[in-house]
Amino acid sequence: MPRAGHTIECDEKARSRLERLSRSRTEEARLVLRTEIVLTCLAGEPLAKRMEICP
């Protein structure tokens, strides 16, 4: 049975910076991936499904 995750929050300024980083083509790939993970968690979406991995 899946465990319940922690909820995270951020303000609009931080979210807009995260969204900008996630679309960047010049930032490191690992930073972009981490940013996408954080944005997925902020949206409340299941992370495994979004990242196309088996839980």
Written account of the structure:
With 55 residues, the chain is mostly helical. The protein has one domain. It is built from 3 helices and no strands. It has helices at 12-22, 29-43, 47-50. Helix 1 (12-22) packs across helix 2 (29-43). The chain is flat. The chain starts with 11 loop residues before the first helix and ends in a 5-residue tail after the last helix. The model has no long low-confidence stretch (mean pLDDT 86).
Brief sketch in words of this structure:
With 55 residues, the chain is mostly helical. It is built from three helices and no strands.
Features of this protein?
0% strand; single chain; flat; 55 residues; 55% helix; mainly alpha
The number of E-state strands comes to 0
Main beta sheet:
none
Number of domains: 1
Structure classification: mainly alpha
**Radius of gyration from the alpha-carbon trace, in angstroms:** 12 Å
Succession of helices and strands:
HHH
Global morphology: flat
Low-confidence stretches: none
Beta-strand percent range: under 5%
Helix percentage: 40-55%
Distance from first to last alpha carbon: 10 Å
In DSSP terms, counting alpha (H) and pi (I) runs of 4 or more, how many helices? 3
Mean pLDDT: 86
